[in-house]
Design a protein that fits this description.
The structure holds 2 protein chains of 2 kinds.
Chain A lengths: L1 H26 L10 H10 L1 H35 L1 H16 L2 H12 L3 H25 L3 H9 L4 H39 L9 H10 L3 H30 L11
Helix pairs in contact in A: 2-10, 3-4, 3-6, 3-8, 3-9, 3-10, 4-6, 5-6, 6-8, 8-9, 8-10, 9-10
Chain B lengths: L6 E9 L5 E10 L4 E5 L6 H9 L6 E6 L11 E4 L11 H11 L4 H14 L15 H14 L4 E5 L7 H17 L3 E5 L3 H7 L2 E6 L4 E7 L14 H18 L1
Parallel strand pairs in B: 3-7, 3-8, 5-6, 6-7
Antiparallel strand pairs in B: 1-2, 1-4, 8-9
Helix pairs in contact in B: 2-3, 2-4, 3-4, 6-7
The chains are: A mainly alpha, B alpha/beta.
Chain lengths: 260, 253
């Protein structure tokens, strides 16, 4: 019964929302160029499927590369900062400065340096995803139980052993939390990248690029369809990270362990 | 060689920063094979004393010699059983027991053999593949003891290892500890709040007073080894229990 509820409740909510959408559109006679109906959006998505598939691929590639770069660099940098207070003190303010500079401002600079297209999009995604990974992972590396640290001292463990067998596994839950946040941000970052720094081949670019195109052509149902694609991509990313979270933690971590 | 005391505390004192001393004037000579219990009111520095012998912190007065070395240098011969089981939650039971052997670089097959042996000793062979969260408090403590014994330490420091357990489990583990010691006759330092536990296990009981922690009295425990659970019902045991409780009441004022 409980398990069924987990599916039924959101499904019912969805049905109610879509019915309300149809109803409002009818009741107030809202034109389709202002608010298309769900059916019109699906039809437009089908009609534009070739274009949308290509743009999803372009955006997905940028999102994935930017995400992976943020995760890799973020992890490495956190480790470095966790083991040298001086390095942390030197670097952290600048990481914050980067985080606080709006992407809108950074984007033209990336375009200036890297040109329009993938490299700039990856950089923009990286900038958006990087901070949550660093902030969480650093926290994980420094919040290791004192007693466990002393256990490693009693074992005469070397620094490298302590990092490998205590700090890294201990930081995993934090690292994965950072990754989850980065995972939700990655598609948004890449679409923003398309929007601000994306190029196009034969009139087809990333999802962010197509948003501008459809808007200027007043293809409003297709514009809504890009939103649908963006959502699906977001779910794919979050699903991927959730799967990784489950793989790495389900055997031992409190967040995953079932109490019977 | 054998007559040399394994641990010698000479006028040991400890204060943290500019605060009042936690320990003062601790004088103790411990022979190989002794089982020494520290008992006293909270704040008497019992745990600090163990940490000093472990070399996890340094004395601010006096000198500690462990097998002719400083505590930090002697660490290979010493292991500490922590207050809570202190297991790595991401490692299975067997992997937790294996940890100290792995860290000191023993070859894999020897490690595996030793881990199997230790799990048998503490009666947890069945649980080898479990994770710590799947174990009861008593089982976790057994894993912790198996881990400490895996390196066959000459000196075992136990910091209130059974404090959080119910009395039945505690009695069982006390008996197991003595059985294990017949096999591996390590020298033990044992911090506890339980007088019965101290009398049952020890060859000597050090009663400490608090604020600062000083030696109040050393009580010799004359019962022969090996000890059996029946010892707990003998008049000799009960009168020593009463005497120790009385001493403890004196310092508790």
């Amino acid at each position: 019964m409980k398990r069924q509820n987990a599916w039924l409740l959101p499904l019912a909510t969805g049905v109610v929302l879509i019915a309300a959408w149809f109803g409002l559109k009818r009741l107030f006679r809202i034109e389709s160029y202002v608010l298309p109906s769900p059916a019109e959006i699906l039809a437009a998505a089908w009609h534009e499927r070739a274009t949308l598939l290509t743009s999803a691929f372009v955006t997905g590639r940028g999102a994935l590369l930017g995400f992976l770069a943020a995760v890799g660099v973020g992890f490495a940098l956190s480790m470095v900062m966790a083991f040298s207070i001086r390095l942390k003190q030197s670097l952290y303010p600048f990481i914050l400065i980067l985080q606080m500079t709006p992407v809108i401002i950074l984007a033209p600079i990336f375009v200036l340096w890297l040109g329009q297209g993938l490299p700039s999009i990856v950089m923009i995604t990286f900038m958006i995803c990087f901070f949550p990974v660093v902030a969480n992972t650093t926290m994980g590396f420094i919040s290791v139980d004192r007693n466990l640290q002393e256990l490693f001292v009693m074992c005469n463990a070397t620094r490298t052993q302590e990092i490998r067998h205590l700090r890294v596994p201990g930081a995993m839950p934090y690292f994965l939390t950072g990754m989850k946040i980065a995972g939700t941000l990655a598609p948004i970052g890449a679409i923003t990248g398309d929007f601000l720094a994306g190029g196009a081949q034969n009139g087809v670019g990333g999802i962010g690029f197509m948003t501008i195109t459809y808007f200027s052509q007043l293809k409003i149902p297709a514009l809504f369809a890009t939103g649908l694609v963006a959502c699906l991509m977001g779910f794919l990313f979050v699903g991927g990270v959730n799967y990784l979270h489950w793989r790495l933690l389900h055997r031992w971590h409190d967040s995953m362990v079932r109490k019977e | 060689m054998t007559s040399r005391p394994i641990v010698n505390l000479e006028g040991v004192g400890k204060r943290f920063g500019a605060g009042a001393p936690v320990l003062e004037g601790i004088e103790l000579t411990v022979e190989r094979g002794d089982f020494v219990s520290f008992i006293g009111p909270s704040g008497c520095g019992k745990s600090t004393l163990l940490r000093l012998i472990a070399g996890l912190t340094e004395p601010t007065a006096g000198r500690i010699v462990v097998d002719g070395m400083t505590p930090a240098d002697a660490r290979e011969e010493v292991f500490l059983v922590f207050q809570d089981a202190n297991l790595l939650p991401w490692r299975r039971v067997a992997e937790n027991v294996e940890l100290p052997l792995m860290l000191r670089g023993d070859p894999t097959d020897r490690r595996r053999e030793r881990v199997g042996e230790m799990l048998n000793v503490v009666g947890l062979a069945e649980a080898a593949e479990k994770y710590p969260w799947q174990l009861s408090g008593g089982m976790k403590m057994r894993v912790s003891i198996a881990r400490a014994l895996s390196v066959a330490p000459d000196i075992l420091l136990l910091d209130e290892p059974f404090g959080a357990l119910d009395e039945m489990t505690r009695d069982r583990l006390n008996e197991d500890l003595l059985t294990i010691r017949e096999r591996d006759p390590f020298t033990a330092f044992f911090v506890t709040h339980s007088v019965a536990e101290a009398v049952f296990l020890s060859t000597r009981i050090v009663v400490l007073s608090a604020n600062p922690g000083r030696m109040h009295r050393v009580i010799e425990v004359p019962f022969a080894q090996p000890r059996t659970p029946e010892l707990r019902e003998t008049p000799g045991f009960l009168s020593l229990l009463a005497e120790t409780t009385r001493e403890l009441r004196l310092v508790r004022r």
